[in-house]
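Notes to self after the Tuesday call (sharing in case useful).
The group wants a holo model before anyone commits to mutagenesis around the pocket. I volunteered. Ligand is zinc ion. Logging inputs and output together so the record is complete.
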Amino acid sequence: MIELFAVRPQRGAVVHLHGPGYRPGVKTRSSDRVALCGAPVWPCSLDMPFDALLSPLADAVRWTSMAPSDTDPRPAWRWCRPCIGHALDLTGLVTEFLIAAAERQPQSTSSPP
Ligand SMILES: [Zn+2]
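Result:
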């Protein structure tokens, strides 16, 4: 399985995912500094090494589990939705996700239009 890292946002509030060597499409730049969704990933400072942007997923999950509060009013970071889709595919969790989503659907007695 590909090793996935969270990319600490340099600007904005979106947390992308990075998988070393993974390219989301044939048109993706040749640089390895790209998120799973194809967004370029660069440190905001030339002095900062690329690896300093990356964090293990287990640590990064805590970034997005904290809501803003009166004492820390920063807007909560959120996960990049396209990166999540790529990650589900890369980790073989698509079917598991779809089953879980289906179980959470409201019960309907009619067919879709
Ligand atoms: Zn992304």
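Two things stood out.
The pocket of zinc ion is lined by residues 16, 35-37, 39, 80, 82-83 (CB under 6 Å).
The radius of gyration is 17 Å.
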